[in-house]
Automatic annotation (TrEMBL), chain A:
Keywords from the named record: Membrane, Transmembrane, Transmembrane helix
Protein name (Swiss-Prot/TrEMBL): ABC transporter permease
Domain of life: Bacteria
Transmembrane feature ranges: 20-42, 69-93, 114-140, 160-181, 193-215, 235-256
UniProtKB/TrEMBL annotation, chain B:
Transmembrane regions listed in the UniProt entry: none
GO molecular function: ATP binding
Occurrences of domain ABC transporter (ranges): 5-235
UniProt keyword terms in alphabetical order: ATP-binding, Nucleotide-binding, Transport
Family note: Belongs to the ABC transporter superfamily.
Alphabetized PROSITE patterns for the sequence: ABC_TRANSPORTER_1, ABC_TRANSPORTER_2
InterPro entries assigned: AAA+_ATPase, ABC_transporter-like_ATP-bd, ABC_transporter-like_CS, P-loop_NTPase
Protein's name in the database: ABC transporter ATP-binding protein
A Pfam family recorded for this sequence: ABC_tran
Length: 262, 246
């Protein structure tokens, strides 16, 4: 792919300027750590039992710092899929729908090169978000432990490793939505598919087939469905989830190379 | 002389609607050819085939001697086009868009910076250099699109109605850019609805009707409008309208 550097520079600039990316970054990086700390605090606050506190009951016990990081990992595995899916719908779908993809035809930088640059910039952005979320959660948890006099348990570091891996897997799961946006030529249609995937994931998980469904495996691994469901997720399931990213990248690059009637 | 832009007996239909019917045109280096015709005559479709944005069902397209779908690298560096949407992202400023276009067209960073400044000046876009393109008027967005298509001084240029939204000053600016590019040896294909405008800028005017070239007009000659309608009427008289026939 000729002139890939130019495509990379352009896509980075577009990423920095994107309203969707800015909003998603702020929500991911600040709301997830704060939400994790808050959810654990609520579950351990001793307030009168309500529907809300009942939902947070699993967070009421266990080492404090470990629980903070685990909750962040659970929320991030879903939030990243939504934020990344929206961003893929925008970065690929908007250009095809608006005709900008057609203007990229016949350039020294091929459309395939542009598509690959979009994928790599997207993954780099989401990787940065994952690292920031985990880092801020660990930092906030350490502060809470220091203030409350609770020891910062070493188990939090292994949970941080789990959160990083689960987050990166979730980031990779967003790549196929670039292909969806390209073939449908519709950002909104892609959002519809994203919502559909989330619904299907919930159904598959409820029916007990979640570990083998790539879009469910990372969340289950973070104990979203409980410790037993997490224990059923092994290396083969995680590798299958990891394979979605390169498959999606190949599909979207090929689709952009073959675009016609622009 | 080898044609820089060529369509040879190209035909294409969109489902049941015919768009191009045995369409042929050539543009040589150093000449400006204008296509003129009604809305839906096939001008934009022909340009999309030339730019590699549409694969025709029949016929041959050549862009700098190559299949437009097979143009890359050095040859692509020599081509620029503006058809429908410009190569300009609404979130970027005018300068950022033009510089990105220059880089994507194959210029290195230093050359792209100089070319960006030059073309922004050439198209009188300096007052809006730091404005986001989403905030521009339609006319200025069109000038931005032309800037992005020509920043790299291409040798083959395709412009679809480049002056349609421009004020009189903008029309003169673009006309000067087209003539200067042709004087430098570029082959330029433009389309328009305005006979007097193409008469000022083109070396040849071809009349497009019903998806094919039906005749030519001499730039600068008198009574172009009457001659244009004669050609279109003769074409309609020669070939029954398929819609009316059915």
């Amino acid at each position: 792919m000729t002139n890939f550097t130019a495509a990379w520079e352009t896509e980075w600039l577009l990423c920095l300027r994107s309203t969707i990316v800015r909003i998603a970054t702020a929500l991911l990086v600040f709301v997830i750590p704060a939400g994790a700390i808050g959810a654990v605090a609520l579950s351990r606050s001793g307030t009168t039992a309500t529907v809300t506190t009942a939902k947070f009951a699993p967070y009421a016990s266990g080492p404090l710092a470990e629980t903070h990081v685990l909750v962040a990992a659970q929320v991030m595995s879903v939030a990243l899929l939504m934020a990344g899916g929206f961003a893929m719908a925008w970065t690929f779908g908007q250009e095809v729908a608006s005709g900008l993809a057609g203007a990229r035809t016949g350039m020294a930088t091929s459309r395939a090169g542009v598509a690959l640059a979009k994928v790599l910039v997207h993954l780099t952005w989401l990787t940065g978000c994952v690292i920031a979320v985990v880092g801020l959660t660990v930092t906030a948890s350490a502060l809470v432990c220091a203030v409350t006099g609770v020891p910062f348990d070493d188990g939090a570091w292994s949970r941080a490793g789990l959160a990083l891996v689960a987050g990166l897997l979730s980031a990779g799961l967003t790549i196929p939505f670039g292909w969806v946006a390209t073939v449908t030529r519709s950002p909104l249609g892609t959002i519809g598919v994203l919502i559909g995937v989330v619904v299907v994931t919930q159904l598959v998980t409820a029916l007990g087939g979640g570990a083998w469904f790539p879009y469910a495996a990372p969340s289950l691994w973070t104990e979203m469905g409980g410790p037993e469901a997490a224990a059923a997720v092994g290396l083969p399931h995680l590798l299958l989830a990891a394979a979605v990213m390169p498959a999606g990248a190949i599909a979207v690059v090929h689709a952009w190379r073959r675009l016609d009637d622009l | 002389m080898t044609a820089a832009l060529e369509l040879d007996r190209v035909s294409h239909s969109f489902r049941t609607r015919g768009a191009l019917d045995d369409f042929s045109i050539v543009v040589h280096p150093g000449e400006v050819v204008a296509m003129i015709g009604f809305n839906g005559a096939g001008k934009t479709t022909a340009m999309r085939v030339l730019a590699g944005r549409l694969r025709p069902s029949h016929g041959t397209a050549r862009l700098l001697g190559r299949d437009p779908h097979d143009v890359s690298g050095r040859n692509a560096r020599r081509f620029g086009h503006l058809i429908d949407a410009p190569l300009a992202h609404p979130d970027l400023t005018v300068t950022e868009n033009v510089r990105s276009a220059a880089r994507l067209h194959g210029l290195d960073r230093a050359t792209a910076a100089g070319a960006t400044t030059a073309v922004i000046g050439q198209l009188a876009l300096e007052p809006w250099a730091d404005a986001r393109s989403a905030a521009l008027s339609q006319g200025n967005r069109q000038r931005l699109g032309i800037a992005c298509a020509t920043v790299h001084s291409p040798e083959a240029i395709v412009l679809d109605e480049p002056t349609s939204a421009l004020d009189p000053r903008g029309v003169v600016v673009v006309r000067d850019l087209i003539r200067a590019s042709a004087a430098s040896g570029a082959a330029i294909l433009v389309s328009s609805h305005h006979l007097d405008e193409v008469s000022r800028v083109a070396d040849r005017i071809v009349v497009v009707h019903g998806g094919r070239v039906v005749g030519a007009l001499e730039p600068g000659s008198t009574d172009l409008e009457r001659r244009f309608f004669e050609l279109v009427h003769d074409a309609d008289t020669r070939t029954p309208d398929p819609e009316r026939a059915s």
